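In the design runs reported in the main text, the only information available to the sequence generator was the tokenized backbone. The following block is the verbatim input for one such run; it is reproduced so that readers can re-run the procedure and compare outputs position by position.
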């Protein structure tokens, strides 16, 4: 069945697994916070789950790209992955955060 749907190296496995992993992590933190008496509203955990998933997926896709390049015999440059890929993801989220802060300050 894995071969029919793209095999174990298919790109769409990464978002699926990342969402499950981040859901597990947010659940563990939520249960731990519950035992300490600091339970938040359910939408807070949903937003944390989305944020953690959004941070895991690009890193996983970059790792998959590096693995595919290595399997083809092409060189994998750490500089390209770190400064091109990871810095691009961080810059995107920083720009998104900046826009959200500006919109919040304008709309009050």
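Verbatim output:
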């Amino acid at each position: 069945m894995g071969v029919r749907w793209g095999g174990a190296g298919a790109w769409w496995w990464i978002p699926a697994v990342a969402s499950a992993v981040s859901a597990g992590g947010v659940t563990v933190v939520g249960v731990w916070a519950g035992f300490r008496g600091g339970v938040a509203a359910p939408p807070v955990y949903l937003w944390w789950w989305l944020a953690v998933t959004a941070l895991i997926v690009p890193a996983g896709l970059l790792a998959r790209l590096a693995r595919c390049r290595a399997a083809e015999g092409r060189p994998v440059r750490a500089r390209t992955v770190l400064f091109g890929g990871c810095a691009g993801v961080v810059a995107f989220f920083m720009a998104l955060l900046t826009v959200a802060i500006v919109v919040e300050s304008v709309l009050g």
